[in-house]
Specification:
alpha+beta; 3-stranded antiparallel sheet; 13 helices; 12% strand
């Protein structure tokens, strides 16, 4: 009867809990989640996460490859602007001026503007955030604008206190009474530099107005003021997988040594007796050694991991790829288990994520404010003249197009979409990563040159339309 009552009470207690995850049973005894805000969590853990993220990307090939996969797919050769101003001459002039300036964008002179895009995204993935200082340089050849990319460590997070004017500094970022960012406190040099602090000012931070700094990061929760490294939820798994593979490699090396042990039952036996000056017994390939009565040799037989090693590694790498938001094939380069349908489905999901990152992160937080500042300085420096168009600064950002596994099928699908009116030709060209006006100009020039030289191609129209020409 007591057993029956205990079982009944157990079911009664379970029934009183609306959610299993909110229960207090033995299965949840070691689960201690925190109710702190995202900013409080990052304040106490961000430095450690960032250091470990740097380390794992530097040492682990899977982590390094994952970062490269995301950057190359999101940025590629660059997300480029297409002016949407109405004046055709102005559009042409502004595109030419922008192309000249892209080579002068970097303060350090190492990257062009599109190289800075890749550097910014790589830093955001690795550190969780990135800072870009906007500087004016009157000696610049075209537009007096320079960009300086700074790692997250440049932010002086030790500044965290209210100010007499009602503003408040949180983790090195100054906010006004309405919660708007008004300034950043940045170190003059990277605090991890090995130079002497007195000479390089590594521990001296300065207040930089917010309109001169771009803070680029991926917010995960409302009110989040700093970014979280993208590898945070797989850091431990990557580290332990490294340890496991190292241990397995050492086990294989030990097994390959094939060590032998001589059991000497007769102490006076001369077999395998070491020569004077010799430190080890020796066996050579092909040796057939006869033993005298009373002598025995045994070889070590280290335990083998069996057939579970590859399965275990693949499962761990699949979990890591899920945490990073990329496919297993992109993480490892292993295409042995895919077909056209499966790899296409995986790429579609991944590219949907890339498109979101391109728009929400790179374009909105980095490209858009840089374009607006560049237009402003181009006008002030008389590099361009404003046309009679209030939307002269309108722009469309075009990322590099994605290549498909079977491009012929995709091109036919695009052709049908244009013919049926589901897409414009300009949109198809944009998806390929090109400017439709530049394409049209190139086609026009190609056709004129081909006609002048008497060359015949399917793409060259001689004034007579056919069934394959665009309507």
């Amino acid at each position: 009867m007591k057993i029956f009552n205990s079982i009944a009470n157990l079911f009664k207690k379970k029934a009183q809990t609306p959610y299993d995850g909110a229960g207090q049973g033995k299965r949840l005894n070691n689960w201690y989640p925190t109710g702190s805000s995202i900013n409080s969590i990052l304040d106490s853990n961000l430095s450690t996460l960032r250091i470990r993220s740097h380390d794992i990307i530097r040492k682990n090939p899977y982590a390094a490859n994952a970062v490269e996969a995301i950057v190359s797919n999101c940025i590629g050769t660059g997300i480029k602007p297409q002016s949407k101003a109405r004046d055709a001459d102005f559009r042409k002039r502004i595109q030419e001026l922008w192309l000249q300036w892209t080579d002068e964008a970097d303060v350090a002179g190492i990257c062009d503007f599109y190289g800075l895009q890749a550097l910014v995204l790589r830093s955001v993935i690795e550190c969780g955030e990135c800072f870009v200082r906007i500087k004016t340089d009157r000696q610049n050849g075209t537009v007096p604008l320079k960009l300086q990319v700074l790692e997250a460590e440049h932010l002086d997070a030790s500044k965290d206190y209210p100010l007499p004017n009602g503003h408040i500094i949180k983790s090195g970022i100054e906010f006004d009474k309405s919660g708007k960012r008004v300034a950043y406190y940045l170190y003059k040099e990277h605090p991890g530099d090995s130079c002497k602090l007195n000479s390089c000012g590594g521990r001296e931070s300065v207040r930089i107005p917010a309109n001169e700094v771009l803070h680029i990061y991926k917010p995960l929760r409302p009110g989040q003021i700093r970014g979280e490294p993208w590898l945070s939820n797989v850091l431990l798994k990557l580290h332990e997988l490294d340890q496991y593979e190292d241990a397995e490699l050492v086990r294989k090396k030990t097994a390959a040594m094939f060590a032998g042990f001589v059991t000497r039952l007769d102490p006076d036996s001369e077999i395998f007796k070491q020569e004077e000056g010799s430190d080890l017994y020796g066996l050579e390939p092909g040796t057939m050694q006869f033993l005298d009565p009373g002598e025995d040799i045994k070889f070590s037989t280290p335990a083998d991991v069996g057939g579970t090693y590859e399965i275990f590694i693949k499962q761990q790498l699949r979990a890591i790829s899920v945490g990073l938001g990329i496919t297993y094939e992109q993480l490892t380069g292993d295409l042995s288990g895919v077909n056209y349908s499966s790899i296409r489905a995986g790429l579609l999901e991944f590219r949907r994520r890339c498109t979101a990152l391109q728009h929400n992160l790179i374009v909105y937080q980095f490209c858009r404010p840089i374009w607006n500042k560049w237009i402003e300085l181009a006008v002030l420096s008389n590099s361009i003249k404003i046309p009679n168009d209030k939307n002269f600064a309108a722009v469309k950002w075009i990322p590099q197009g994605f290549a498909w596994v079977d491009p012929l099928k995709e091109q036919k699908a695009q052709m049908e979409a244009v013919r049926c009116g589901f897409k414009s030709r300009a949109e198809v060209v944009s998806e390929l990563g090109y400017d439709v006006e530049e394409i049209d100009e190139e086609i026009k020039n190609d056709n004129q040159r081909a006609q002048k030289m008497g060359l015949k191609f399917d793409s060259v129209l001689d004034g007579e339309s056919d069934d394959t020409s665009d309507e």
